[in-house]
Write a structure and sequence with these properties.
Layout: H1 10-57, H2 60-65, H3 71-86, E1 90-95, E2 100-102, H4 119-124, E3 128-134, E4 137-147, E5 153-162, H5 163-202, H6 208-224, E6 228-233, E7 238-241, H7 243-248, H8 261-264, H9 270-276, E8 280-287, E9 290-301, E10 304-314, H10 315-354, H11 358-382, H12 386-401, E11 405-408, H13 423-441, E12 450-456, E13 461-468, H14 497-507, E14 511-516, E15 522-529
Parallel strand pairs: 11-12
Antiparallel strand pairs: 1-2, 1-5, 3-4, 4-5, 6-7, 6-10, 8-9, 9-10, 12-13, 13-15, 14-15
């Protein structure tokens, strides 16, 4: 027979736990309070009995009655009158030998007082409270000696209340205490239910095991992403920073938890988002001397901003991704142009064959094949880098489609690039400048469309020269054309290529010059250092 393990929800466990705690507290408080009330009632009754006894013992009429021929005849009425007025169970008066002169039951007058607690009063003249079993049962008594004018002890007064009556009074108060205890318990249980529901809402209805699992998963996710992630609370204190953030920002390997964000990152704008509650998406920023692309989002709970989370990556990584995408698009355009060109060539050859001009078809095939082969052999020898060679070959095919004369100088040479220079950046840079030249000569106003390219790696520098027969760049705009978003051409998505090229040149510690070409258009000269100092 298998047994099922019953798992209680967090809310149920909280209610049970809080209820048990409340029961223990309320029960303990009730028991202590009940004990205090019982002791207080008993003390008050004892004090009352002693006080009444003192009043009786000091009555002059009662004291003078002791010298009469038959004291009980005078003392009994006085004692009974006091008993009735005070509500005492008995008021007993005895002489110095403990013989009763007054008693609620007249038949017991003249008999010896019962209880054995008269000695402190009769022998030592003390006033005291005692608890003893008398002729009327267990009682709480106040005893006071009766003295004459000389101070001699003549007798004793005993005023008492039955223990049974005191216990009834205590039981009455304890019943009230029990009712109040039950009401407090019900209120506590209701409060426990309300508190558990509130806490359940705060933790989004999750169980402790689920919270622990989410915490572990959250840490694993944060450390697996390449983006830097930083979060702060409403007091601008860091609550989370993953290792990627520490790496990207070149921060020391230490604990940043609970530190103020401005202490760790003085240039951070996360406090602005915390104040405004507005998103900041894809913002370029400089932090710890690095250009980054950052997103900042407010963390809201219950409609209030309780923190901010920021994710970021180095701008260079974003630029590299954009460059790779641009390169892929460029390759696609080149392949498309090449496909169109060969389609046209095939159509021409097909037409020549159908017309019976076999010799002309052979000559056309030979011409195209030899020109293509010559270009491939030249690039393989002078520019052995496969990426740059493929780019130039693709641009050559693209130029043929656009009816542009694209010339790569035969004295160009570019051997293996040094490891400090990113080949993909060179491809993006060179492709951007050549494409820009194609667009310049493709204007309707340009009759002779020619673009020339020269590459050299002589000495300690790598040099590119791209010149065209287009309209050129006026001297006033030669600095402005490298600004992001500025372009002399019409249309959307302009002013990006040259700005990107300028950024790559700066990153590679080079420079670019813009002048006038002998072809009549623009001349772009780029120089890059082969050996770059690598930052530690």
């Amino acid at each position: 027979m298998t047994t099922r393990k019953i798992r209680l929800s967090l809310q149920t466990r909280m209610i049970l736990l809080i209820t048990i705690i409340i029961i223990l507290i309320v029960s303990s408080v009730g028991a202590v309070f009940s004990s205090i009330v019982a002791s207080s009632i008993e003390e008050q009754v004892g004090k009352k009995a002693l006080s009444v006894a003192k009043i009786v013992a000091s009555d002059p009429e009662l004291r003078s009655a002791f010298s009469s021929d038959y004291p009980p005849a005078l003392i009994q009425p006085i004692a009974e009158n006091v008993r009735v007025q005070t509500g005492a169970e008995f008021v007993v008066v005895g002489n110095h030998e403990g013989i009763r002169y007054a008693h609620p039951i007249p038949d017991r007058i003249g008999k010896e007082m019962v209880g054995g607690d008269n000695e402190p009063g009769l022998a030592h003249g003390q006033s005291y409270i005692s608890k003893a079993v008398g002729s009327m049962g267990p009682s709480l008594r106040g005893k006071v000696p009766i003295k004459n004018e000389k101070g001699d002890i003549m007798g004793i007064v005993s005023v008492g209340f039955l223990v049974e009556d005191i216990e009834e009074a205590i039981d009455l108060y304890q019943d009230r205490i029990l009712i109040l205890t039950l009401l407090a318990l019900l209120c506590g249980v209701a409060g426990a239910i309300a508190l558990s529901r509130y806490l359940k809402r705060l933790i989004l209805g999750l169980e402790p095991e689920e919270i622990a699992s989410l915490y572990v998963e959250r840490n694993a996710v944060l450390e697996s992403v390449r983006e830097g992630i930083v979060a702060i609370d409403r007091n601008n204190r860091i609550t989370m920073m993953n290792k990627a953030a520490i790496r990207i920002l070149n921060l020391p390997e230490e604990e940043f938890h609970r530190k103020e964000i401005v202490e760790v990152l003085p240039d951070s704008r996360m406090p602005e988002v915390l104040e405004s509650g507005e998103h900041q998406l894809d913002r370029e920023s400089i932090m710890s001397g690095k250009e980054i692309i950052v997103n900042r989002l407010p963390i809201k709970f219950g409609g209030k901003v309780v923190g901010v989370v920021s994710s970021f990556r180095p701008k260079s990584e974003i630029d590299q991704l954009a460059s790779e995408l641009s390169q892929a698009r460029r390759y696609a355009d080149v392949l498309r142009a090449q496909t169109h060109e060969f389609h046209n060539l095939l159509y021409t050859i097909s037409g020549l064959l159908q017309l019976g001009s076999i010799q002309e078809a052979v000559e056309l095939i030979t011409s195209e094949t030899s020109a293509q082969q010559e270009m491939i052999l030249f690039l393989a020898k002078q520019i052995p880098d496969p990426l740059i060679g493929a780019l130039l070959l693709g641009m050559h095919n693209r130029a043929k489609e656009l009816k542009i004369q694209f010339v790569i100088h035969h004295d160009s040479h570019l051997k293996e690039l040094p490891p400090t220079i990113n080949r993909q950046q060179i491809v993006v840079l060179l492709g951007t400048l050549i494409q820009n030249a194609f667009e310049a000569v493709n204007e309707p106003s340009v009759e002779h469309k020619r673009v020339e390219c020269y590459l050299s790696d002589t000495g300690d520098e790598i040099m590119f020269e791209i010149e065209d027969s287009g309209p050129g760049v006026v001297e006033e705009l030669r600095e402005k054309i490298f600004e992001h978003g500025f372009s002399t051409k019409k249309g959307e998505d302009r002013g990006i290529g040259l700005a990107k090229a300028h950024g790559i040149i700066n990153e590679l510690d080079g420079y670019i010059l813009v002048g006038k070409s002998e072809l009549g258009g623009a001349l772009f000269t780029v120089s890059l250092r082969k050996r770059m100092e690598v930052a530690p």
